[in-house]
Amino acid sequence: MKSFNKKESKFSLRKLSVGLASVTIAVIFLGTATVFADDNGVSEPSTTEVAVNNDKAPMSSAAKTISESFEEDVTVINENLIDGRTATDIVSEEITNAIAQPVVDEEVANVGDVISVETSASDPVITESEEGSTTTATSEATAQIVTTTKADSSEPVGVQEQSTVSYETSGEYETKSATITEKERVEKATTVEVIKVDNSTTTTTQGNNADIVFIIDTSGSMYDDIEGVKNNVTNFVSGLNQESITTRLGLIGYGTDFTTTSFNGSYFTTDTAEFITALEQLDYEGASEDPRSPLNFIASDYDWSTNTGSKRFAVVFTDEDIDIWDSDEVVAQGIAEAVANLKKANIATSFVYDTNDSEAVNEFTPFVDGTGGFAVDINQDYAEIMSNQLGKWVITNVNSDVRYYKVIKDDYRIFVEVVATEKPVETVKPAAAPVKATPKANVVKPTSTATAKKVVSKDELPKTGEKNSTAAVAGLGILITILGTVGIKSRRKED
C-alpha cells in the first residue's frame, strides 16, 4: 500500500494531527487560534485554500484542517461538538482570553487585578501506525497558564481543592481518497492557592507616603468634636513626619450628601495650616448622616494621584449611626458594596464613633474588619486618638509590606487522534484493440483453362481517365492495402 505520509502523497496525516493539537499550543506563544503546525512542528498560518463540500455552516476547525491537509474537498458525515466547537477550540479560546487580560503593575494594583500571566507548553509528541489501508496518527501535548491576582487579606491562605473538567469531541469525514475519523480530548485541572508574602521592615524607609482623607460628619452635634480634631491635627502630622512619612491630608464633610475640599486644584495638601483652615470652614448643621456615599466616592472617583508605594487611609468621624429612612436590609447591602469598593481600592478605613452605640457597632464594624482599619471611641481624649492610636496605625501600615496573592494554575493535557482509511483505487479493464480487416480482392474464378490463359491485348487495357474494369479495381485495392500497411509499419518503426 502506498503510505499516506510519503512525499508523493497529496496529504499528510502527521501535519493533520500536529495541526489540530497545535491550535492550542500555538495560542500560548502567538496569541492566535488560527495557527497550524507544519510537518516540522513549526507553527505558521495555513495558506492552502480548499473547497469544503458540506451544506452545514459554519465548518468546524477540525473539518477545515482535514480539508487543508488532504488538499481535497471534505464532506462532514457526522460531528459531535460542544456548542459547535471542538475541544481544542474551547481550550484555545480559554487560553486566548487569559493572555488578553489586562495586567496591572503590582504597586498600583487593586484587589482582584491581574498582575501577571505566565504560559508554558510542550511540543506535541506524534505517534503513527499503519495497518493495511488504514493509517493512525496521534498527537499529545501539555500546556499551562498561571494567572496571579492581587488577593484580599481576608482570604484563607493555602491551596484549595483542585477542580477538573474534560472536553471530548469527535467527527467523521470523507474525501475523494479516504475516510477519516478525528477525536479530541482535553483534560483541564485547576489549582488555586492564596499566598501571603511578608516583606515588612523593622525600620522606616525614607520617602514613604501616607494619603489620609478625613471624612467628617457635619451634623450640628459634631461641632464640638471637630474642635478636638482641629486642635490635634498638627501634632498628628508632625509625629508622622518624624517617622520619615510624607503625609498628604484630604477633607470631606458629609450629612445627607457630601462636599469635597479643593486645595489649589488638588484633593490633598501637605500644609497642616491649610488643612486646619479648611476644617474650620465646614458648615455644621442638623442633617441625616450616611458615610457610605463619600466612602464610595473616594474608592472610585477620588483623584488620589499617588506615587508608587503610597498607602491610602480614610478616617471617619461621627457621633451617630447611619441615619436614613431605609430598611435594615437595604442599609446592610449598601454597607457591603461600600466595603467591597474600599477593599478593591486598597483604602484602609477606620471609624471614630460612639463605640457604646450597638447599632453603630453593627454598621461600622464591617468597614473596620473588611479594610484593615480599627475602631476608636469618639469619647476619648483627642490627643490620645490622634497622636497615639491613629498615628501608630498609619505608621504600622506604611512600614509593613504584607502582600496576598491568588495564584490560579490551569494545566491542560491535549490528545488528538486521526484515523484515515484509504479508498480502493477504481480500475477499468482496457478495451480490446480494434482489428483491421484486410480487404479481399474480388477475384473471378476461371471457369475453364482456356479462359484462364486468355491474353489481354494492348487495346483492351483501360485508358487514363476511363473507368477501371472490375478486375483492375480489385487488383489496385489489394496493392493499396499492402502498401498502406507497409507504410504504417514503417512509420511506427521509425517512431
UniProtKB/TrEMBL annotation:
Keywords recorded for this protein, A-Z: Cell wall, Membrane, Peptidoglycan-anchor, Secreted, Signal, Transmembrane, Transmembrane helix
Keyword hit for Secreted: yes
All residue ranges annotated as the Gram-positive cocci surface proteins LPxTG domain in the record: 461-495
Residues passing through the membrane, by range: 471-488
Domain VWFA: 211-398
Region (Disordered): 149-176
Origin superkingdom: Bacteria
InterPro entries tied to this protein: ECM_Assembly_Org (IPR050525), LPXTG_anchor (IPR019931), VWF_A (IPR002035), vWFA_dom_sf (IPR036465), YSIRK_signal_dom (IPR005877)
Protein's name according to its UniProt entry: LPXTG-motif cell wall anchor domain-containing protein/signal peptide-containing protein, YSIRK family
UniProt organism field: Streptococcus henryi
